[in-house]
Amino acid sequence: MEFREKEAIYLQIAAYVGEQITLDKWPVEEKIPSVRDLAVELQVNPNTVVRAYEFLQNRFVISNKRGIGFFVETDAKKKIREYNKERFLSQDLPEFFKSIYLLDIDIDNIATLYRQYVGDNYRSK
Predict the structure, then answer these.
(1) C-alpha angle 55/81/36, rounded to 5°?
(2) What tens digit of pLDDT does each residue of 17-59 get?
(3) How far is CA 94 from its chain centroid?
(4) Cα–Cα distance measured from residue 110 to residue 100, given in angstroms and rounded to the nearest whole number
(5) Torsion from C-alpha of 16, 2, 85, 72, nearest 10 degrees
(6) CB-facing half-sphere around the CA of 78: CA atoms within 13 A
């Protein structure tokens, strides 16, 4: 995983976990990788993964069953989408609008490229 400079690593790890859940790679009510295993996989300090897992626990995305591990909550996908949507609309979208305005890119062109991207990378909805 390549980390971006402008965002805390634990938030990027939390986003990675959310993506795995959203894409059904880590199913609802199933155990997710341990702190240690994910730290090794992502090549980060285990304390950083602990912080990401705490962040997700506080948002009721995952839960800790003491002695067993962390598990995906039943409505985790809904919670992830709500958080990501709020974050995108308040932080990323204004920056996107600024860029397309400054670059004088037509919104219809963006829509066409978006549909092509979804068709090429995700199953159709």
Answers:
(1) 35
(2) 999 999 999 999 999 999 999 999 999 999 999 999 999 999 9
(3) 19
(4) 9
(5) 0
(6) 4
Instruction: For residues 62 and 76, give the distance between their C-alpha atoms in angstroms, rounded to a whole number.
Output: 7
Question: Among residues 65, 68, 87, 67, which one has the least CA distance to residue 18?
Answer: 87
Is residue 29 within 8 A of residue 35, CB to CB? The reply is: no
DSSP 66: T
Structure confidence by residue, pLDDT tens digits, 24-35: 999 999 999 999
Name the phi and psi angles at 117, rounded to 5: -60, -50
Side chain identity, residue 8: A
Q: CA 21, CA 25: separation in Å to the nearest integer?
A: 6
Q: Which two tokens stand for residue 100?
A: 């397309």
Q: How confident is the model at residue 124 (pLDDT cuts 50, 70, 90)?
A: low
Q: Hey, what domains does the chain have and what are their CATH numbers?
A: 9-76 (1.10.10.10)
Residue that the structure tokens 């062109």 belong to: 109
* pTM of the predicted structure, to 2 decimals: 0.79
How many angstroms separate the CA atoms of 3 and 104, rounded?
Answer: 30
